[in-house]
Amino acid sequence: MTSIQFVLYMGWLKVAEALLNPWGLDDDDFETNMLIDRNLAMGLKIVDDGYGKTPELRKDAFWDDQWVPLYSEESAWEKKYKHHEGSLSQMKLVSPDIGSFRITLGIKDPLTAALRTIRK
Q1: Residue 31: partners with Cβ closer than 8 Å, 6 or more residues away
Q2: Between these two residues, 108 and 71, which has the higher pLDDT value?
Q3: Which residues have C-beta within 8 Å of that of residue 29, sequence separation ≥ 6?
Q4: What is the rounded CA–CA span in Å between residue 24 and residue 18?
Q5: What pLDDT, on the 0 to 100 scale, is given for residue 22?
Q6: Which of 26, 29, 52, 111 sits most deeply, having the most CB atoms within 10 A of its CB?
Q7: Span of the secretion signal (predicted)?
Q8: Would you say 21 and 27 are in contact if contact means Cβ atoms under 8 Å apart?
């Protein structure tokens, strides 16, 4: 093995090692478990301690007493909203008495059909 091959082999080995463990285990690397645990704990603490405690509403420089919609009400009524329509929404049943139906799978007697499959 030449020295160039050795250098290239060791370089690719370091790349593979970095790909296997991208955060590393050195002293200067992040401890991701600690970061995740702390952020989860702080998020839960904020939610638990702040529930039902909304701050009072105070006027600031951007306070506006008059509310103006982004668009006129006429244009809002003119817009056609597309909604999802299922594939069976336009299906018409032959008789209103037919509320449900069974699909047979070609098995004549379920008990004997089960026995036939066990015997095979």
Answers
A1: none
A2: 71
A3: 23
A4: 7
A5: 67
A6: 29
A7: 1-18
A8: no
CB-count exposure of residue 17 (10 Å: 0-12, 13-18, 19+): exposed
If you search the block for the tokens 């989860």, which residue do you land on? 40
Question: Two tokens at 99?
Answer: 């509320």
The CA distances from residue 11 to 1, 21, 22, 26, in Å, are 15, 16, 16, 19
Compute CA distances 103 → 1, 93, 100, 106, whole Å.
70, 16, 10, 9
Tell me how far apart the alpha carbons of residues 37 and 32 are, in angstroms, rounded to a whole number. 8
CA 103 to chain centre: 35
Does pLDDT of 79 surpass 70?
no
pTM, full prediction: 0.28
